[in-house]
Amino acid sequence: MTVKPFYPIGTPGKPWTAAEKQQWRESQTRFRSYETDVLEAIDALKPRYDVSQYGELHYGDRTFPLMAVKTQNWDDSLPVALITGGVHGYETSGVMGALSFLSEYQNEYAGKINLLVVPCVSPWAYEHITRWTYDAVDTNRQFYPQGEGEEARALMAYTAPLKGKFLLHVDLHETTDSDESEFRPAKAARDGEAFEPGTIPDGYYLVSDTQNSRLDFQAAIIAAVEKVTHIAPADKNGNMLDYPVVSHGVVEYDNNAYHLCATLTGAPFTTTTEVYPDSPDTTPEACTRAQVVTVHTAIEFALAHA
Asked: Tell me, what CATH number does 171's domain have?
């Protein structure tokens, strides 16, 4: 008989209490600096963009300003493109991709669209290279009025005045081997459930929304990214992660059922990226490049088909 290992925090079959969440938090290690990696990069963008602080997190003895980067000379008559990264802090290419996009694309969209970029939604998680926030909350399941987590609430409040203005929202994510080795086992333990091992798609793919499909939009992004890194194939059942692959490199399900960040704006063009930097067939640099190509392609397509 094979006995599945249990996560080292908690009791099998029992959801975590505040005590287990505190134990989990104390087990986390700070690996990198939000100030150095993100805030300093945003400061360097100030000559070319407007920078706004839309909130502040207070975790332990640490304070994290929540920052957004906006088009200078914002034009209320133009639509808005929202780009979000770091909703899950450990997904490095999302954060770096958002920052790289801002560095590379300066005046291309002047008079066409307003850019609103939030490079790192979950800064504590970014520093600790973890999926969850300080309170063991998965931010990318909290984008609804009753959701938990200050990160999601702050972003919802910040973007609410722009509802109806959004043409596009691209949410930049990645999948790593730690999903199977750490984060999914931790989730099962936190929720008092049994851990069922899964597989990680090998390559880049997109998550489309059954309520806002636009497979032509998704296909245009896949075609552009395929020149940068490989696209994840469907499994023998035509699925990825038990979701149907509806076109090359695109899975689709009801994003609202999971309260994903991609449902935040109600924009006509939305997608969620997933890259796989642990694949032997790519590099972290190529994954960051894939995120930049995604954003550029998505904006160009949305503007052409609005």
From this structure: 3.40.630.10
Average pLDDT per 10 consecutive residues for the chain, totaling 306 residues: 71 96 98 98 97 97 97 96 98 98 90 97 98 98 96 98 98 96 95 92 97 97 98 94 95 97 98 97 97 98 96
Q: Which domain holds residue 198?
A: 18-305
Domain count across the chain: 1
What residues have CB less than 8 Å from 122, skipping those under 6 apart?
Answer: 86, 87, 88, 89, 133, 139, 151
Strands of 133-253, DSSP E:
166-172, 205-209, 239-240, 243-247, 250-253
Contact 249, 232 (CB under 8 A): yes
Whether residue 48 contacts residue 106, with contact meaning beta carbons closer than 8 Å, is answered with: yes
Predicted confidence at residue 20, as pLDDT, reads 98
Establish if 2 belongs to a structural domain: no
